[in-house]
Write a structure and sequence with these properties.
Elements lengths: L11 E5 L8 E6 L2 E7 L5 E5 L1 E2 L4 E2 L5 E5 L2 E5 L6 E3 L15 E7 L2 E7 L5
Antiparallel strand pairs: 1-11, 2-3, 3-4, 4-10, 5-6, 7-8, 8-9, 10-11
């Protein structure tokens, strides 16, 4: 077995992009974590941690997808806090965020990588 480089990103296939409803979330188990996956009207695919830190429950995938200006977000169904789909940052409370994950689509298949590193 060949050794893997420590920088190697493991991409896990989740589903075909065509199977994702636009502006609806689905939940998948990726790298041992419950991940909420979203497809927006412009066909971008995003992945966030599914745990809502305000409601303390796994429900982000059931949220309402929209935009504020040019920021795509999902609003949690419990308390309606909005989370930026690109970064996981809460748009209503700068001190709170959910994990955001790298996503790519290859030959129509959604692949989710590891958790994004916070740029801050």
């Amino acid at each position: 077995m060949a050794p893997r480089s420590p920088d190697a990103v493991e991409w896990q296939p989740v589903c075909r992009v065509a199977e994702l409803e636009v502006e609806r979330g689905v939940t998948a188990l990726v790298h041992g974590q419950a991940i909420a996956i979203f497809r927006t009207t412009d066909d971008h695919v995003y992945a966030l941690g599914n745990h809502d830190p305000f409601a303390k429950a796994s429900m982000i995938a059931r949220g309402i997808v929209g935009t504020r200006g040019d920021v795509p977000f999902v609003a949690s169904p419990a308390h309606k806090h909005a989370f930026d789909l690109r970064s996981g940052k809460c748009l209503d409370d700068a001190h709170v965020s959910v994990p955001a994950y790298d996503v790519k689509v290859v030959e129509g298949v959604v692949l989710v990588g590891h958790r994004k590193v916070d740029a801050a």
